[in-house]
Design brief:
Elements lengths: L6 E5 L4 H11 L4 E6 L2 H14 L3 E5 L5 H15 L4 E4 L14 H29 L2 E6 L12 H21 L4 E8 L5 H5 L13 H12 L9 E4 L5
Helix pairs in contact: 1-2, 1-7, 3-4, 4-5
NADP nicotinamide-adenine-dinucleotide phosphate (NAP) binds next to helix 1 and helix 6.
């Protein structure tokens, strides 16, 4: 399907996976608005997107603040002239044992990764409902499919995102909204490299561009086709 002229919002679009997705969609002719907390990254990325020749805008807010998410999404929807696609990508990875991780950190991971996805989807839904169709891509993780040592907060948050996303799909597909739950394995980014999960070697390890091409291709499928769930792994890291 040609997605040229559609309007997308990518949360966490100023760096990492979100930035790669924003640029890949812009290269398809999609107008892309991005969100995050770091205004400089957002401004620089908006410039890159505009240089591709599409419309772009940004909003600065933390996804754990419902009122700020709603205000930011509504402002971006107005600037773009509507929303067709939400990529719910913003997230944090904090790793450590259950015993040692402070409860505040544990709560913040859940608040950012789970509530962030919920707030952004809830804010975008009225625009998709009004249009009579749309797409929501929720970025979970293979960590959400199975918990493991030193990742209790992250794995629990992503397991909850998978479940939330499945509920969204059940409720919203009747309005022609495709809710897509993605569970990528380790991809080279600030999160995975600083978290010690990978050295990010581009010869072997998935790069943000690989993830972005995958998301782009899923969104380009004929609207009758819904990729409900999907995983992506490095072949031989
Ligand atoms: N990399 C991997 O191996 C991997 C694997 C599976 C799933 N994922 C998931 O993919 C998504 C992107 O991860 P990444 O690897 O690109 O991580 P990253 O490089 O650390 O980037 C995280 C992004 O999320 C935004 N963000 C974080 N906390 C936020 C908050 N409270 N409010 C608003 N924005 C916030 C950041 O923007 P600001 O800095 O501007 O706030 C940044 O754009 C995450 O949901 C992650 O869990 C990653």
């Amino acid at each position: 399907m040609n997605i040229k002229g559609k309007n997308a919002i990518v949360t966490g679009g100023g760096r990492g996976l979100g930035k790669a997705v924003a640029l890949a969609l812009a290269n398809e002719g999609v107008n892309v608005a991005i969100t995050g907390r770091n205004e400089k990254n957002l401004k620089d990325t908006v410039e890159e997107i505009k240089n591709i020749g599409v419309n772009s805008a940004y909003a600065t807010f933390s996804v754990d603040d419902e009122a700020a998410v709603k205000k930011g999404i509504e402002s971006l929807a107005e600037q773009l002239g509507g929303v067709d696609i939400l990529v719910n990508n913003a997230g944090i990875g904090d790793f450590g044992s259950i015993e040692e991780m402070p409860s505040e950190t544990w709560e913040q991971v859940i608040k950012t990764n789970l509530f962030g996805v919920y707030y952004a989807a809830k804010a975008v839904y009225p625009f998709l409902k009004e249009k009579g169709e749309g797409d929501i891509v929720n970025v979970a993780s293979t960590a959400g499919l199975k918990g493991g040592g030193n990742m209790s907060a992250y794995a629990a948050s992503k397991a909850a995102v998978i479940s939330l996303s499945q509920s969204m799909m059940a409720e919203w597909r009747k309005q022609n909204i495709r809710v897509i739950t993605l569970t990528p394995s380790t991809i080279a980014s600030d999160m995975s490299i600083q978290g010690g999960l990978t050295d990010g070697n581009p010869e072997k390890v998935l790069q943000p561009e690989d993830f972005a091409e995958w998301v782009r291709d899923i969104l380009k499928m004929n609207r009758r086709a819904l990729i409900a769930n999907g995983s992506i792994f490095s072949t031989n890291p």
